[in-house]
Amino acid sequence: MAAASWTVLKESSGASNCTSCDTDKFGLDRYLFRGACVDVCPDFFFHTREKSCEPCPAHCSVCSSSSHCLRCNSSYYVSDGLCNKLECGEGEVEDPDYDDCMACEEGCKNFQDGCFKNCPAKTYSVEEEMTCVPCDENCVSCDQHECYWCESDLFLSEGRCVEVCPDGFYGDEDTNDCEECHLDCETCSGPEEDDCDSCEDGKTLENGLCVFEHEACPATTYRSDDGGCEDCHPSCEACSGDEKTQCTKCAKGRFLSPQQTCVLKCPGTFFANRFSSVCEACPYGCLSCVDAQHCTRCQGNRYAPLYLQNGRCVEQCARGYPAGLVCRSCDPGCASCLRNSSYCLVCDPPLLLHQHQCVEDCPAAHTLRDGACQRCPPACSECHPLGQCIECEESHFLHEGLCVSECPARFFVDAEQRECSRCHPDCAECHGPDADHCETCVDPEAALLNGGCVTSCSSQRYRDQDSGDCEECAASCLTCSGPDSGSCTSCREGHRLEGRGHCDPVTHSTCTLHQFVDEDGDCRPCHKYCHRCSGPGSSHCLSCNQGHLLLNGTCLDKCPIGYFEDEMAGKCEPCHSSCESCVGKHSHECLSCKFGRFWEAKECVETCQHGHYGNAASGMCERCDITCRECLGPGEDSCLNCAVDLVFLRKAGRCLAVCPEGYYHDSAHGTCEPCHATCKACSGIESHSCQSCQIGYRLSDGICESMCYRGQYPVLEGMELACEDCDASCAECWGQGSSSCTSCPPQAMLDPRGRCLLCCNHDDDVADVKKGPEDCCNCTESRGECVLSTNLPFINDKDGEERGNLAVFVTACVLLVAVLVAIVFLIRHSRSKSASRDIPPRGYEKLGSGGGFGGGGGSSKHGYSSASSSSFSRHGGSSSASTGRFQESQMVDFSDRRKKNNEDDDDEDIVYMGQDGTVYRKFKYGQLGDDNEDDLEYDDGSYTFR
């Protein structure tokens, strides 16, 4: 860099520490580049309006802005202002001399699986073998015999590149060649006689000259121009002249300065070398030093200060913290600190960082994450590194990974577990400790019985209309129905039901304990199993003899499944509705659960609480994997959604820190969604959101373009790329099989699994497109290629016969019209053939399209066009547009007329309008003869006959 490039600035403290640039003496702008002001920014950089040099885009050597490249590095080419990797097609190789692809052809030379017209740099050509052979290492240009040009910092010596020239030669910095020394020199630094570094035997070195020892001048003298010996300056021990600035060696106690003077003390940024008696430069950035390895003071530029650390000047303290241009040590155990020795940023293992201090263990209510103690969420006494609470402080309860002071709706405080447990599904509110201690019910028609919600009260209770609770009947009632306790439907022993629903005591009181009063007021014996009863049968018991238990008026030896023994009352009482078997009536007294319920916190629940899943094998609620917020089963691959800071890969059921290759992060839903099949990495699901491509595809404006033809997909065979045909059902695909389609032919549609399915209402055969009883698509509502089939209304049983008759009538009419059209078609077809035998090929061309289809050019007998133009072929049998189906009887031939006055309007373009309002034109192209099969194309453009 030229010295003229430096400029003196108001805000600079040296030529290499500029912060902004001024114009030069000619008024031309200069630009800031790495602390210096330059006339022109170097390669790979561009100048900004702020007069600074900023880097070009990746792989760009010359650019005008950060987003507009003008020339790219080798193997890259410019496209839309950016540098794209050069990817050559089959049969082509990269030409590094021109950054382009070239075909391998006769006369090219092979090198590293490439084909070159001219051998690249650092190689030479062997014409007999038509190959390029690498030069020796460090040689830029060569032939098979010797090197001609070496890399910088090396010198050419006898056809080889060397770092140091051999004795008798010196390295010429201009030519990078080893040149011969003067004849008097054994070694030298230049071509002149006074450039000697050493001499032959018998001669001695004197100020760069080799002289005979007896001719050498004595100490403290020098050889003058006239050949005599003259005295040195008194301060010199040896010199090249009589001035004090011409010393070459100093007396003891003095040191040779950079100005060739002998001084007692070396100047700033230099130190005195006691062995050589020379002032040598301090290391980079030193203001003073004691030797080449130990600085004592560093430069203090306020824009780019240097700090003294371990005898060197550094831009940033590797350990410790900067204070007064010196790196001070941190406290023991602290690897890096800021502002003072105790404000730690990084700790030495195994210590942990906590509030900028290094500790052995994290304190309570903290967790270890990334080598530092992170505080748990509020009220957590213990938490997971991902931030989920494990245990809560006093007066707080665990709920969905957080600690809350009050449980939310439909949860109650489980004091034993110190967490919020879910209420019974029937409860709108509950107070615990059991899930069946409801305060209100979800079903407004349900009744509240012992804290549980029931559809109806037992026969001994009635539903209070105001509170909704099941209240006990009056003492005299055996059963009642409400609306109050005295509305009896049957009476206890010793009472008789009156007409108003009241139970009055009977006057007869002579019956024994094992008798009952019949309707006539007489005493009758109970059944033998009954202790007390209300009637004669075994199902009329009110209490049982010893060793038996009462259930629904019957005395049993043992309670059945679903009931428990109430020994105090001598009854079989029902278990809670969630229990299969139990020891008590409450939900927390289950012994086993009913099918479809799971054991959790001593209860049987239909749905496990947050962060748990129901294990059908064990019948227990078990904790999900720590990465899952909710899950279906054990392991990290059964997640339904994820813990904080993780994303959900739905396909694998896993929660990950980042999405894998082939997926992108849907931040709105916190999920990993698959990229388009051709993308290797992407920013969205669309095909134009690719960031990198699968093998065999090239990236262009966010789209991965296949290197194969349409209807093929790329396959890597060894080191070469081959193209294989797609499955017959696909128009385009990314791989093998019918589930790898990326686009479909007309009359078919792409389903989410990558298959091309026929439209459900399509009756024609399309070759090899998959169709089954359920595998079809309703294309009518999604796109316009499959709306050709007539959508007949469904026929129900009631009007089936009437509509069946109508269908027969319509079918007959259609067939009649088809026959008439076929007759007209045959007559016109024979006329057109006779009229076209000596007519030159004519056709139609599209107006304003820049090229027509006349003369048969561009015909595709079996092809289907795009949405704007779909072609018809008699080979296919039918054609589809966006609004209707054309049968063969509807086809019209077009031919040129010999006479201009023929005004047969039937031969004009047929125009039709679809149901969606789209206008279409049919036209014919190609010569109309006896042997050709006419193709029609339907297009919504305008055409002119030529």
UniProtKB/TrEMBL annotation:
<dbReference type="InterPro" id="IPR000742">
    <property type="entry name" value="EGF"/>
</dbReference>
<feature type="domain" description="EGF-like">
    <location>
        <begin position="55"/>
        <end position="84"/>
    </location>
</feature>
<feature type="region of interest" description="Disordered">
    <location>
        <begin position="834"/>
        <end position="946"/>
    </location>
</feature>
<feature type="domain" description="EGF-like">
    <location>
        <begin position="630"/>
        <end position="673"/>
    </location>
</feature>
<dbReference type="InterPro" id="IPR006212">
    <property type="entry name" value="Furin_repeat"/>
</dbReference>
<protein>
    <recommendedName>
        <fullName>EGF-like domain-containing protein</fullName>
    </recommendedName>
</protein>
<feature type="domain" description="EGF-like">
    <location>
        <begin position="231"/>
        <end position="263"/>
    </location>
</feature>
<dbReference type="Pfam" id="PF14843">
    <property type="entry name" value="GF_recep_IV"/>
</dbReference>
<keyword id="KW-0812">Transmembrane</keyword>
<keyword id="KW-0325">Glycoprotein</keyword>
<dbReference type="InterPro" id="IPR032778">
    <property type="entry name" value="GF_recep_IV"/>
</dbReference>
<feature type="domain" description="EGF-like">
    <location>
        <begin position="472"/>
        <end position="504"/>
    </location>
</feature>
<feature type="domain" description="EGF-like">
    <location>
        <begin position="725"/>
        <end position="757"/>
    </location>
</feature>
<feature type="domain" description="EGF-like">
    <location>
        <begin position="134"/>
        <end position="179"/>
    </location>
</feature>
<keyword id="KW-0472">Membrane</keyword>
<feature type="domain" description="EGF-like">
    <location>
        <begin position="674"/>
        <end position="705"/>
    </location>
</feature>
<feature type="domain" description="EGF-like">
    <location>
        <begin position="180"/>
        <end position="211"/>
    </location>
</feature>
<feature type="domain" description="EGF-like">
    <location>
        <begin position="525"/>
        <end position="556"/>
    </location>
</feature>
<feature type="compositionally biased region" description="Gly residues">
    <location>
        <begin position="848"/>
        <end position="860"/>
    </location>
</feature>
<feature type="domain" description="EGF-like">
    <location>
        <begin position="329"/>
        <end position="359"/>
    </location>
</feature>
<feature type="compositionally biased region" description="Acidic residues">
    <location>
        <begin position="930"/>
        <end position="940"/>
    </location>
</feature>
<feature type="transmembrane region" description="Helical">
    <location>
        <begin position="806"/>
        <end position="827"/>
    </location>
</feature>
<keyword id="KW-1133">Transmembrane helix</keyword>
<dbReference type="InterPro" id="IPR009030">
    <property type="entry name" value="Growth_fac_rcpt_cys_sf"/>
</dbReference>
<feature type="compositionally biased region" description="Low complexity">
    <location>
        <begin position="861"/>
        <end position="885"/>
    </location>
</feature>
<feature type="compositionally biased region" description="Basic and acidic residues">
    <location>
        <begin position="835"/>
        <end position="845"/>
    </location>
</feature>
